[in-house]
Design a protein that fits this description.
With 182 residues, this protein is α+β, with helices and mostly antiparallel strands. It is built from 4 helices and 5 strands.
Length: 182
């Protein structure tokens, strides 16, 4: 199960960022997938880009994220390595697979943080709205107030499934070692 769960990343978003504000009775939610960006409605990304313009943030465009091109290959590679671990039935290989998956996940979260930081701090000097000292980086996890917006950032279903896959991989390695399960 640990090996096949990452395939869910092709049908479930990895992360979500929701923006709540009085002028938007229905919050704007952007979903980050392994290969695309989508919104809770067809115009969500466009609306976020319009708001970003006013404070000097760059437009969010999927083409600007090379990760969306190679993440699917990383996931397929993890599944292939996981299948090798499964067929070898060796606890050490299970632990190595789980460790690689965990390390890649931490690197991915760090990359996401850098993306958020860049978008929230590198503001245009010609922005219509300038608040001295203000940065618009959404939180990595949790809630943050940005002017009259509340930004909420958490793993989406795909991210939760990915975490479960990593946990199951480590549990499998531990059970194989402890009980010599073949």
């Amino acid at each position: 199960m640990a090996v096949l769960l990452p395939l869910c990343l092709f049908v479930a978003p990895l992360w979500r960022i929701t923006l709540k504000a009085p002028q938007y009775p229905i919050p704007l939610t952007m979903y980050i997938w392994i290969n695309k960006l989508t919104g809770s409605t067809e115009g969500t990304i466009q609306n976020i880009n319009i708001m970003n313009h006013y404070v000097g943030m760059r437009h969010i465009e999927p083409e600007g994220f090379p990760e969306l091109t190679y993440f699917p290959y990383v996931v397929i590679g993890l599944v292939v390595l996981g299948l090798i671990a499964w067929f070898t039935n060796n606890w050490k290989i299970w632990a190595i697979w789980s460790g690689i998956f965990l390390i890649l996940s931490v690197v991915g979260i760090y990359d996401f943080y850098l993306w958020e930081y860049d978008y929230g701090h590198n503001l245009s000097s010609t922005a219509p709205i300038k608040v001295p000292g203000m940065a618009y980086q959404p939180p990595l996890f949790g809630k943050k107030v940005l002017l009259n917006f509340v930004a909420i950032s958490y793993p989406a279903l795909g991210g939760i499934i990915m975490g479960l896959s990593i946990l199951l991989g480590f549990v499998s390695a531990w059970l194989k070692k402890k009980y010599h399960i073949t």
